[in-house]
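Support case: user asked for a sample of complex input and structure output to validate their parser. Sending the pair below.
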Amino acid sequence: MKFEVLTIFPEIIECYIKHGVLGKALNKGIVEVKVYNLRDFTSDKHKKVDDYPYGGGAGMVMQIEPFYNAIMHLKADEKPRKLVLLSPQGRKFTQKLAQKFMEESKAMVLICGRYEGIDERVKAFVDEEVSIGDYVLSGGELAALVIIDSVVRLIPGALGDELSAVEDSFMKGFLDYPHYTRPEDFKGMKVPEVLLSGDHKKIALWRKRQALKNTLKNRPDLLKNLSPEDMRILKELC
Ligand SMILES: Nc1ccc2ncsc2c1
């Protein structure tokens, strides 16, 4: 999987790549990340990337030309790639969409704007517009990192054995169960007895009950397609 990131802050992406869990996947050559500075695709000596909005209003708007020039530069190799604009107006990014990206795309271009706004005409050159959530961010770079991290974790063998075995609750449709490790008693705060019992059946049931309890409390919207067994447990909790 190849990611090409268009941004005016390449350092944000490059720093994460150096220190993130992506290192193993990059070293194995399973993933490649190339970062492009949009300022390198400007045509003026000041490398200008934004201007005042037509119609007035606060803030600056990112101009289309650097985006267009960068996209045309990437497309010159005529290889297939999915172009994704990171935007608060996009469709919500979910684990399901991460899975779809991993399965369908060999290469993705992640286009990061700053969030006073981007010239609307940029959207004519992208395949998808994706949002990571409903809050105010300064730009699309964090969203690009979220997408890279979540998609790479889905690539078989990308993260090495110690990580790839991590079962992700979002794939099951509810939140994770509580986790504990040593010490068994920290200032009187004890690890639940069941986790010390060695009874794997009881532990699995306890974990499922806790996961459903957490989900019911914090994210009831996730409780959609429960199995009859999970529904039975959930009813006991209500
Ligand atoms: N403010 C904001 C919120 C979500 C989002 N997703 C991609 S860019 C972006 C920017």
